[in-house]
């Protein structure tokens, strides 16, 4: 009998990020990702990262937060959780295979794992709050190696990159995380 693999998002997430709600622009979309990261720290339900997938009309498809420690799973990053939730909701592995446009909004620049998954998940744009340098300056997280021109690599694959959206607000979540004691949950 195969070993079942199950990952769970926190119970508060659907109330905080109801699928179908419209977030009109990059500030609103990254703002949601940052708010989810903050709430994840406040609820002590995971690390200080949030992510959300939106369709081309700004409609929220799915959201995720970091669940690495609560789920004892190194791939349970916010972006990965958002990808999996969106793929489950849309019932397809590549989100944009139907020709529609999808955006990934993140509270912080994707690590090397989430960067790689972005190629295959089928997103058309990546909108980012904090930079990897912010994450590593303000926390114990190591974001791993990326190509020197990682934004260019994404853009060559048809994924637009918008950085520094609400960057200071995103940095504040890492300060909050540090004040809360860091990786204690």
Automatic annotation (TrEMBL):
Coiled coil: none annotated. InterPro entries: CMP_dCMP_dom, Cytidine_deaminase-like. GO terms for molecular function: catalytic activity. It comes from the Bacteria. PROSITE patterns: CYT_DCMP_DEAMINASES_2. Residues 24-154 form the CMP/dCMP-type deaminase domain. This is tRNA(Arg) A34 adenosine deaminase TadA. It comes from Dokdonella fugitiva.
């Amino acid at each position: 009998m195969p070993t079942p693999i199950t990952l769970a998002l926190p119970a508060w997430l659907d109330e905080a990020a109801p699928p179908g709600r419209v977030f009109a622009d990059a500030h609103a979309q990254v703002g949601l990702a940052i708010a989810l990261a903050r709430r994840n720290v406040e609820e002590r339900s995971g690390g200080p990262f949030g992510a959300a997938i939106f369709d081309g009309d700004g409609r929220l498809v799915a959201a995720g937060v970091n669940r690495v420690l609560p789920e004892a799973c190194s791939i349970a990053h916010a972006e990965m959780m958002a990808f999996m939730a969106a793929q489950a909701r849309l019932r397809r592995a590549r989100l944009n295979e139907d020709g529609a446009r999808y955006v990934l909004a993140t509270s912080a620049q994707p690590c090397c794992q989430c960067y790689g998954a972005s190629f295959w998940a089928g997103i058309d744009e990546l909108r980012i709050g904090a930079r990897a340098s912010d994450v590593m300056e303000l926390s114990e997280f190591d974001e791993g190696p990326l190509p020197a021109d990682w934004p260019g690599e994404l853009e060559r694959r048809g994924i637009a990159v918008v950085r520094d959206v609400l960057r200071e607000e995103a940095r504040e979540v890492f300060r909050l995380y540090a004040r809360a004691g860091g990786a204690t949950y």
